[in-house]
Structure formats: structure tokens, C-alpha cells
Amino acid sequence: MTERRRVLIGVLAVLLILTVLSGGLVTGALIADYDNLGTLARVVSLIDRHYLEPAAAPEMVNGAIKGVVDALGDPYSVYMPPKMYKELREQVQGSFGGIGILVGQNEEHLTVVKPIKGTPAYEEGLKAGDVIFKIDGKDTKEMDMDTAVNLMRGPVGSEVSLTIYRQSDKKMHDFTIVREIIKVPTVEGEIIPDTRVAYIAIMQFTSNTASELQKVLSDLGVTYSNKSGLDGIILDLRGNPGGELESAVRVADLFIPGGPIVFITYRSENEEVYEADNQYINLPLVVLVDGNSASASEIVAGAIKDTESGTLIGTKTFGKGVVQSLYELQNNAGLKLTTGKYLTPQRKDINKKGIEPDIKVEQPEEGEKDVQLEKAIEIIKEKAS
User: Is 348 one of the annotated active-site residues of the chain?
Assistant: First the structure.
């Protein structure tokens, strides 16, 4: 057998493995890159024949698939082995094991967006703004969010150690936290004391969020016909890292008149448009946003701003205007892949740009006074008068 034929057979074998694992088809562009595929096949063959220790084929294939996805240079596209994919699905469904924090990503490290009240992280004293430097001794510099979240999860009763940098005292802190089953409440609400203003905070967008929001609205007496006697609603999306597209659309539909909520554009598919049904809560509305309001929360904020259904207060949002799709692969692995870009009702592309608030209000790093919330209450009262 000639070397060329051996390489060709190796190339076809690797392509077949990748095709079967992905449940899809190998594109013509990939097949045309013969030299690189030949190199890949030869590396696999050399490892199989000459590596000092017996090589595990599943691990090599997993590594190859991960490398293909990593080569995209897209922080939002991730290959997930079975355990990681299972945990992501549990998170989207609103229940998972872990320590109870919402995390965001800055330039190099992850940050704590919010510890969930009543969870181990909250009880141990983690605070919003804490920068996570290490998880169980592993440096998080340039670590993708899914990997970090996976490291913080584990069997109930087991421990995870975090090293964080706290902005307020400019010091490093070590925490050892015992994992528990985390039930994630995504919506909280109350009538602000001494006012007629409903305050509603959405922490993230899961499959349960829209129904949770409708229950909170009902509990607060908010109706479409506005017989509650309220002056208005403050919708707090600060620190909300996003979540499900469909959930964001259902939430936005409650607050804006009929028309586009969001446009989704694709490379090779027709554009999609999600529209509101014109049955909405017609009360004065203020939306609180900040640099950690991302993705699905920006869909809601962008729809409200573009339709002039409410006033945005705070600071510029994160700027994640791309949409990921989840694909289940063989052996219960998964692929989260960036497949589309969303545009606001006025067709604004906010990816890597963010959404500027109508009224910019910086929140002081120290102190318990919430100046953004105070400004929101002031605006609601002005609109109601």
C-alpha cells in the first residue's frame, strides 16, 4: 500500500469519526483542506503506533473535536463532554448542583455577578464584583465560563475552594464552600416601601422565567388593565448574564406594543423575527442595566428602548449580540455553537458595542446606597404625575 493511499484512508477514517460523533455531514470546504487533514490523520496514526503508553481513542477524538471548536476563536462556542452538557441543561432548566453564584466574564478572569440568596456562596460571604482568580487551585485567567462553572460543580456535600480578589479592600480572599443542590429563583418582586412602585428583578433567563414573572406580577396586583393603582414598574436587569432566547422574547412581549421584539440573522438561513402580540402592561416602566447585563437581558432592554416603552437607567450593557444553539451529540455530549446574530427592533447591532442607557447613572463601588434605583423611583414618580 502506498504512503499516499495510507494517508487517504487515515483522512477518511478521521472524517468518518468526526462525522458520526457530530451527527452531521462533512462539508466540501473541510474535505478540500487535504494537507491539514492528512496531517491530522498522520498524527493520530503516529500516536497509535509509537506513543510510549497505549492511547485512548475516545480521549483523542474528544480532544480533536474540542480543538476544532476552539480554533473558531469564539468564546461562546464550546464543545461539552457529557458531564458538562448535562450540567448546562440543568442550569437552563433552573435547577443544578453547585455553590450558588451567577458569574460574568471580564477581560481575563471571571467575576461574581451575584450570589444567590440562601445558597452556600451567599452564606460564606461571596459578594458581587469579586474577581475569581482560582478554582481548586486552577488559574482562571482566560478560562471560558463553561469550564469554570463545571469546576465549581460536583457531588452534593463535596467542597470547592475559590481564591478571589475583592475590589473594596484590594485584597485576595480564600473560600472553601460545600456544594449543595441549587434551586435558582430567576424572578423576585416587591412593592417598594412607602411608594406605589413595583420592583422586579430578573437574575437570568431560563425556561421558567416568563411563568415566574407572570406569577410575581399577579402577586403584586399588576394587570394589563392597570387596576392596581401602581405608579409604575422598575425592571432590574443589572447583573443578568442572559440565558434562553425564547424566555427573553416572552418577557419582552409583556412590556412592549405589537411589532418586532428582535431580529435573528444567520449566515445561510433566512432571517427570523420575533414579534410582540400588542397585549402588554401599559404602566410607566424603568429598566435598570449595567455592564453585566448581557445577551438575553439585552434583547429585553433593546426592545424596550427601541419601542420607547420604558426608560433605561444605569450604565452601558455588556454587548453580547450573538445567539448560541445547543446540539446534542452522540454519547450525550453537546455543542454550544454561535449560529446567529440578533438585532434590536430598530435593527441595531449591539454585539461588542452594548446598549447605552437613556439616563447614565454610575453606581458607587462602596456603600449600600443604590443611586440607580433611587433615580428609577424618581423617574417613575415623574411619569405618573
Answer: no
